[in-house]
Amino acid sequence: MSTEGEFDRDQLSSMKVSELRQMCSDQGLLVSGKKDDLINRLLGSEGPEEDSTEDANPEAENIDDAIDKMLARVRGEEEEEPEEEPEEEPDPEPEPIEAEILEAEILEPEPEPEPEPEPEEDPEDDPWYSGVITSEDSELVLDDDDEEEDEPSVVINLPSIAGLKENWQIAAAVGMVVLLVGAVAVFLIQPDPAFSARPLRYGDHMDFTVSGTSVAVTGDEMVGYIRESTSPTLDDVCSELRATVSGGTGSVTIRKGDANEIFHPMDSELEGTVMALDAYGRQRLTVEQTLTHDLSVDLEGKVRSGEDCTSTGWIREDNTLVSNAQSWRDITTRSTIRTDTQLNLLDSDDSLTTARAVVFGADELGSVGDLASLLLFPMTPIELHAFFGDTQLTKGLSSNDDITWDSDWRWSVGNEMNTENHGLVTQVSIFHYEIGRCLGHAQIDILVKNGYPWPVKQDVDIVIDKTLEGPNCNFVGSSLNEVLPDGRITIVATITETSSNSGSQATQWGSSYAGSPGSGEDVPGGQSQWGYAMPDQSDQRDFDLEAAVDCLMANHSTTDAAVALETGGYVWQAAYSTDEWNLSWVRDDDTAGWIILGARESGGCNLVDQDDYDEGTTIWSRDSIPDTLTLEKLEQRVLAESRYPDLETHMSSSAGNWEESVSYGYLLSVSEANDVLSSLPVDVGDGQVNVAGSRTWQDSGREHTVSFAMNAESSRMVAWYHTSLPT
């Protein structure tokens, strides 16, 4: 049906995608596709809907065949070109169901096993690679036209890191969250050390394209963690979620610093390095790397109806994500001291969301960090010298030939080949041995060229599925399995070099420098034991934590909170905001609750509210509480302009105190004894205390939120982030 008599192309082009989709729906036309597709349908330049629907089933055959050829990396085939399926299939494919065409395009995945590069026992069906069928019981849901037009259809909502050690499963899922919006590195995870440091040259640069990239997540628990971390964007998504990068570009650069960045006169021979502040706000000489991406991202999944997951489809198309991630690595130790990632997400209705996350290293994440790094690097070029060292990559050589090789990453060198775009290159295959035995597979195929610091092409194929754990899993694999939520994540990604520039001066890795902070330098001491709560002793607050607890015990002694403290309990979490304390308590039988106390002008305090927590919220473990610094000492370091200048700008007043709207407090994380968790390098168990602060305000039609977390024992800043959303 044409609307040519009512609208011309220019008028339709000026409309929003959601308006065009509504017009298509009203006229019985398909509502999927990009803006140009919708306009063409409304102008009558496309065939009937039935033609589009008939192409759905052959699409699955082509996708499955492409996966079968993954190791050969035969990519780039058009999904619209049907190919015959392989004769052998693990399970018979269900017959397609035919139904009348409704007023919306129907998306209902048809289960079909996903071929793997190597055989796996009892793999789960991956519905993302199955056919698309129509069903009268299903309905495709696109952008909700009832929403406010200025409400973003996709929102980046970085979760609070104050409870990182307590919510260890959510921490493991954050890597997946980031992938779903296309970022490469964010505040919880740092790059794997095996890929993070190499003798690059100052001025090295590479441009690349991103293609054939998608992330598919299935499983109620795994999708649930992602849903919670991205609220409200994915509040109604359940069971299945997929992000597809329909196209994009990127670059990686090693910046050469100026002579004025050398802050100690005896370090002038290290020109090229860049001064950066570490987790304690101390100056270091570093190598600075910048990684950028400009991606077109489509999101789709299934949605809930109340508490039930339905077969209804959900699509968010034509989102543009631009990311800029800078990292600084100490010239002596090669360790990453800070990563600063900035994201700009523009949805199909031109609503902009921005986010900035600054992370100060995360080596203590151990195995969890390694796995999350794996999930984060598909669109990050591998630094070759850091991985292979000085090994001469010759045909037939493998990691088995190197008796000193002790990494779970294994590799083998294939043939040399002459390519049209890159000339003579060498094929190298890399895989993760333990993940292959226990959790699925992680395969990276690269093409390397002599004299290039990064691969000229990199293909990544990852499947992580904890149901694949078998008797061959070692303890590391079992530990990773323990911290993963139930579900399956499938990642494929391809990056290809388009142009490169080589720097002229080698980085001076391993060089010591006079300005390097000594061990323990500018790290405060004087930690104190807890009484009822963490010590405060603030000069900023007349109603400090000690005053609040004293008032509770003296004036509200019959409350559950006071009784708990009197019988050996303690305050495991506390937050202060505008003369009011919210105190969370636990007693020795693991019952827990909270109470809010407000200061009176005449002295004393009012009981504002109180209630109990659900059973199992936390456990009593007084012996696990470490000695900590005071809240006052920690807040003074946060508010010092010289340590974290970009954070301090948002959190402090002109008088050098907290902005009035800042909430500030602490969290003690403890967990029950667990043999697997206690064996992990990451401290997810007893005795972790972090202080955290947050501020939200509105400015020029946008809502800003800034939050941070700092270790309360050492004053080491963990991370801080800043989001800006349309109001």
Could you walk me through the main structural features you see in this protein, from its secondary elements to its overall organization?
The protein has 16 helices and 23 strands. It is an alpha+beta fold and 727 residues long. It folds into three domains: 133 residues, no CATH class; 339 residues, no CATH class; 182 residues, no CATH class. It has a 21-stranded mixed beta sheet that branches. Strands 2-15 form a two-stranded antiparallel ribbon. Helix 2 runs parallel beside helix 3 and helix 6 crosses helix 7. It is globular.
Task: Produce the secondary structure layout.
Blueprint: H1 9-13, H2 17-26, H3 35-42, H4 49-54, H5 56-68, E1 140-141, H6 168-180, E2 201-202, E3 205-218, H7 220-229, E4 237-255, E5 274-277, E6 283-305, E7 308-330, E8 336-346, E9 352-359, H8 366-376, H9 384-388, E10 409-419, E11 423-432, H10 433-438, E12 440-448, E13 457-465, H11 475-483, E14 488-501, E15 505-506, H12 545-555, H13 560-566, E16 570-576, E17 580-586, E18 592-599, E19 605-612, H14 631-638, H15 645-651, E20 663-669, H16 675-679, E21 688-699, E22 702-711, E23 717-726
